[in-house]
Design goal:
It is built from eleven helices and ten strands. The protein folds into two domains: about 160 residues, no CATH class; about 100 residues, PDZ domain (Pdz3 Domain), CATH 2.30.42.10. About 50% of the residues lie in helices and about 20% in strands. The protein is α+β, with helices and mostly antiparallel strands. The protein is elongated, with a radius of gyration of 24 Å.
């Protein structure tokens, strides 16, 4: 059920993104002839008065289609409500609306979290250190057999209790033992395991094993005092998460070789999300918000076949006073699409091969 919940959340984010484009066009009176979730063969469709709505077989994205280049369209090429005939600002609003929709939706998710789940009030600590997430399947922790949701009870002869210094003590142990094997006792769903992890030197020169860490325990919630507290806390959470995401992408761009292992495809994202949700269903709120923010940042990058690439073409058009040749734009977009699809297939194959069920079949 946790896997289905995560897949539904990702599908919802795709719908939100494409709805941003669709509504921005419709509110401006721009013709839209297709609204599709997914790619490939059509599984279901509905033909409205002006737009065909469809669900397709490959759920790796979606698109909003315009009749500008549709040879079967009966709309005259000089129609002022075709997207290509609109001023640059109108087109920029349509192209960027998907990103805006994902960011707004992420904020509303945090609003829903604080309004329904409540505001964190108290923390009841439990022995050990929780691993909410593995950073990369190629990092030492994953190689040693650690998984999201594991609780580290002891490491290097040190027992981790309930005090506030447990995480700092473990981090210090890792940094003091680069390239040295560390014996650990881990609890996984009531089972006690003995694992050996060998820290590696990271891109910052510090020893690391590739996990997120947090104190183990249960969080108690209270009802928000008023609606203003809900919106205020949601804004703080959204701002912090957006800043962390932008910083993460900046690190990926400036140090791609060291950070590339942290890139996950749809399978990896679904697996990590399912692990988190299986431990606490309330984590579906921040997980969905994080993915929505990531989707927005990725799409605004000035890369071919993404919204940012189309905005880059509009900027060039504004500077030149005329658009680039259609053939050039099509070639760039098609090349970018092929590269993105290739990357997507690679990530799906890599993440699928690392799933526990797949590894069991190979043994």
């Amino acid at each position: 059920m946790s896997v289905l919940a995560v897949i539904a959340a990702i599908a919802l984010l795709i719908f939100v993104h494409e709805s941003g484009h669709f509504l921005a066009a419709r509110f401006q009176g721009i013709h839209v002839n297709r609204f599709s979730i997914g790619f490939g063969p059509i599984l279901w469709k509905y033909q409205g008065p002006d737009t065909e709505y469809a669900l397709r077989a490959i759920p790796l994205g979606g698109f909003v289609g315009f009749p500008d280049d549709d040879p079967e369209s009966e709309i005259p090429p000089e129609d002022p409500d075709l997207l290509r005939n609109r001023p640059i600002l109108d087109r920029a609003i349509v192209i960027s609306a998907g990103v805006v929709a994902n960011l707004l939706f992420a904020y509303l998710i945090f609003v829903a979290q604080f309004a329904s789940v409540g505001v964190p009030q108290a923390f009841t600590p439990e022995p050990g250190i929780l691993i909410p997430q593995l950073i990369s399947e190629s990092d030492p922790a994953a190689v040693a057999g650690m998984r999201s949701g594991d609780v580290i009870l002891s490491a290097g002869g040190i027992d981790f209790g309930t005090d506030e210094t447990t995480v700092q003590s473990f981090v210090q142990l890792i940094q003091d033992n680069p390239e040295q094997p560390i014996e650990m006792t881990v609890q996984r769903q009531g089972e006690i395991l003995d694992l050996t992890v060998t820290p590696e030197i990271g891109p910052d020169g510090k020893s690391e094993i590739g996990v997120r860490l947090q104190r183990n325990g249960e969080v108690e919630y209270r009802r928000a005092n008023n609606v203003f507290e809900v919106f205020s806390l949601a804004a703080q959470q959204f701002q912090g998460m957006l800043l962390q995401t932008v910083q993460g992408f900046a690190m990926l761009i400036t140090n791609f070789s060291a950070m590339s292992g942290q890139i996950a495809g749809p399978v990896g994202i679904a697996e990590q999300g399912a692990d988190l949700v299986s431990k606490n269903v309330a984590t579906l709120f921040p997980f969905t918000a994080i993915i929505s923010i990531n989707l927005a940042i990725i799409n605004i990058l000035p890369l071919p076949a993404l919204d940012g690439g189309q905005l880059a073409f509009l900027l060039i058009e504004a500077l030149r006073g005329k658009p680039l040749p259609d053939r050039l734009q099509e070639n760039v977009m098609q090349t970018g699409l092929v590269l993105l699809l290739g990357l997507g297939v690679f990530l799906i194959v890599r993440d699928t091969s690392q799933l526990e069920i797949f590894q069991d079949l190979l043994q």
